[in-house]
Amino acid sequence: MNDKKLLAKIFQNPINSGIHWADIEKMLRKIEGLDVIEGAGSKVAFYKKQSELSIHRPHPSKESLRYRVKLVREFLIEIGEV
User: Fold this and answer.
1) DSSP secondary structure, 12-77, as one string
2) How many domains does the chain contain in total?
3) Is residue 44 within 8 Å of 36, Cβ to Cβ?
4) What is the distance between the alpha carbons of residues 16 and 9, in angstroms, rounded to a whole number?
5) Residue 62 belongs to a domain with what CATH number?
6) Rounded Cα–Cα distance for residues 32 and 67 (Å)
7) pLDDT tens across 3-41, in order?
C-alpha cells in the first residue's frame, strides 16, 4: 500500500481498525529524523523532536486495533507529518 493511501486510512473517520501494523511501521520508519528503538518482546518506540510513540506491535493478529491507529494519528500530527 502506498503511503498516501495509508495516511488516508489512518485519518479516516470513524477510526479504521483493519490496517496492517507492518504497513504503518514501514511508513513510520521512512520519516526523516525519526529514531526507532526496539524494546522487549513486541514493544517498539518511535521518537522525533520531543515526541514519542511507544507501542506494542499487535499479536497474534496483524491488524492494528483502533487505539493503535489513534495513537499513530496523534503522533503524526504532533511531529508535523500531516
Assistant:
1) -SSPP---BHHHHHHHHHTSTT-EEEE-STTEEEEEETTEEEEEEPP-SSSBPPHHHHHHHHHHHH
2) 1
3) yes
4) 7
5) 3.30.920
6) 25
7) 899 999 999 999 988 899 999 999 999 999 999 999 999
